[in-house]
Design goal:
Blueprint lengths: L6 H20 L6 H8 L3 H7 L3 H20 L4 H7 L1
Helix pairs in contact: 1-2, 1-4, 4-5
Length: about 80
Amino acid sequence: MRYEKGHKDATRQHIVDVASRQFRENGVAAVGLAGIMSDAGLTNGAFYTHFESKEDLVEAVVASTLHRRETALQTASGLESMIRG
């Protein structure tokens, strides 16, 4: 089955978003890949299409978070928003 252009990137970002939330709530060590993928609505096997390991996912989550913070700082109310967040 063929997916539309950008589907893989959107799915990867969805996994990163779910993992980010779970890591913040429970800590990296307490969160398993099965729980992340279940909450993302995907199978465990789909994880390895996007990431090589949990460490690779953690790196993606940190990079995504830093990018979002950097982007927020570039807006007029970004600093205040980031501090409140």
